[in-house]
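check this:
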Amino acid sequence: MSDDETIPTIAILGTGSMGSAILSGLLQPGVKITGGIRVTNRTRAKATELAKLPGVTSLALEDMPDANRTAVEGARIVLVAVKPAMVPDLLREIAGALAPGTIVISVAAGVTVDTFESLLPDTIPVLRSMPNTPALVGRGVTGLSAGTRSSDEDLALARTVFETVGTVVEVPESQLDALSTISGSGPAYVFLLIEELTKTAISKGFTAEQAAVLVNGTFQGASELLAQSDQTPEQLRIQVTSPKGTTERAVAVLQQANLKRTFDEATDAALARAKQLAAGA
């Protein structure tokens, strides 16, 4: 976000991993919140911890059954970050407490804009988001989709919120499930590759500690090199792959495994499951 952008009063309903990640982004130096942050969660213990954060009003459902309604009263933006199965009941609970024009943003995987719009008043614009777990360290990639009642200004304000934890890609909602199979699930694919290469390193005689240094450091370094380079991943790979060298032999084996087909099948399976979840299966 730019230095002159501010975020109005915001409520985060649900402070699990993703809700907490977004909260941490909003608390970064340079982020201007004009009306404070309200957060809700189920337990008193967690609410007490969150209440220690500057500018945060933290409410526990354990102490205040109507905490969600209280949190959204007067808020300009409401992030719904509870588990997908809890969303319909939550929306029915808060619907009457939302001021006209309040922007409601879904952070719940698989819950459609239509579900939100059907359970909230016509005066409430809805957007749907798909962040990923690197948001926890400020390196997230968030897919963001407008709803049928949201304006360009609503979309811009939502974008500002998610830019506090990384980068944002705006897509039609019809593409959001496909996006979730790439950036949403993508960290798991990377961790799986690291996991398997670490096992290979150990099988070649390195200790677990040495293997972690070798593999984790290589992935981190390669990612940073890509981020700082103006070259494509293919170009960088070719630079490492000397003709008739050792890397060329290894890459040839990997290419014979048809990784493209494997990733196609994996993301297709994830997309099919996303559609099942959206249908309530």
